[in-house]
Design goal:
The complex is a heterodimer. By secondary structure, chain A is of the alpha/beta class. In chain A, 21% of the residues lie in helices and 27% in strands. Chain A is globular and about 30 Å long. In chain B, helix 6 links the parallel strand 3 and strand 4. Chain B has a five-stranded parallel β-sheet. Chain B has a domain of 105 residues: DsrEFH-like (Hypothetical Protein Ychn, Chain: A, 3-Layer(aba) Sandwich). Chain B starts with 8 loop residues before the first strand and ends with a strand. The chains are: A alpha/beta, B alpha/beta. Chains A and B meet through helix 1 and helix 2 of A and helix 1 and helix 5 of B.
């Protein structure tokens, strides 16, 4: 018998945890809005990537999607590209994200 | 970051030319580029026609028992039903392939999936290298003028030079 192997995945550290808030009055003001409602993988990622290139560093992109896969996918996009998810919300079959362009 | 110090690099080989098999390389390539990866796709054998100006990719349900045959219209239960169409029908009924192709295209559109043309365009916009296999072009008698301008002619060495430093390499 070999030694038991610890199969727990190493937790991935994110720069900052996105804030989940239901209070729309504190929403950051976006410089660009991307509507991906009704779109499927990988369109929300492709549209987000294209749109984030049109705003200045530090500005906010607002994304609304209906694809449940956009939750893990936007998180992966954020980790790979460094653009930060500053806020996200879920409800009525819609997933909304506020992303800050960081570079 | 890649092992070679540059951006993460992905090298794909697209060897299949049916509509269903056209999706994986174009989805992965366009998404990889969106994730700041450096991407090249080598289109060889039956994958080569995916770089033609006029995309004619079809699905081939015949001898593809895993393909669900579903209708893109009607009530939800009807749409979810998978039609048991035996091979002796899908193989001999004239136009069955065109029928299945238009069904798949309609279903994909309704589900908000991008078309192959859109994904290919996204690849071109994000500087994905689209390498067209020169040998396949000669063997199958294709004419370079029928291919998109973004297609770069090359052979195995052109692809392997890029793939040698790749972090991800997939044969599709």
């Amino acid at each position: 018998m070999s030694e038991p192997v610890d199969t727990q995945p190493t937790p991935v550290e994110t720069a900052t945890e996105p804030i989940e808030t239901q209070d729309p009055s504190s929403d950051p003001t976006p410089a660009v809005e991307v509507d991906c409602r009704g779109m499927n993988c990988p369109l929300p990622i492709l549209k987000t990537k294209k749109a984030i290139g049109t705003i200045e560093i530090g500005q906010i992109l607002y994304l609304v999607a209906t694809d449940p896969g956009s939750i893990p996918d936007i998180a992966a996009f954020s980790r790979r590209t460094g653009h930060e998810i500053v806020q996200q919300r879920e409800g009525d079959g819609e997933y909304t994200f506020w992303l800050r362009r960081t570079k | 970051m890649s092992a070679n110090g540059g951006p993460t690099r992905m090298a794909l080989i697209a060897s299949q030319g049916t509509l269903d098999w056209a999706y994986p390389p174009f989805i992965l390539a366009s998404t990889g580029a969106a994730l700041d990866m450096e991407v090249a796709v080598f289109f060889t054998f039956y994958g080569l026609p995916l770089l033609m100006k006029d995309l004619k990719a079809k699905v081939a349900p015949h001898a593809n028992p895993a393909m669900p045959m579903k209708m893109p219209f009607g009530p939800e239960g009807f749409q979810k039903f998978s039609w048991p169409i035996p091979n002796f029908i899908s193989g001999v009924v004239p136009g069955f392939e065109s029928f299945a192709t238009s069904m798949m295209k309609e279903t994909f559109e309704k589900k908000g999936v991008a078309t192959i043309e859109e994904l290919r365009e996204a690849c071109i916009e994000s500087d994905v290298r689209l390498i067209a296999c020169q040998m396949t072009m000669d063997v199958f008698g294709f004419d370079q003028k029928d291919f998109i301008a973004a297609a770069e002619l090359g052979g195995a060495a052109t692809f392997l030079e890029f793939a040698a430093d790749a972090d991800i390499t997939l044969f599709i």
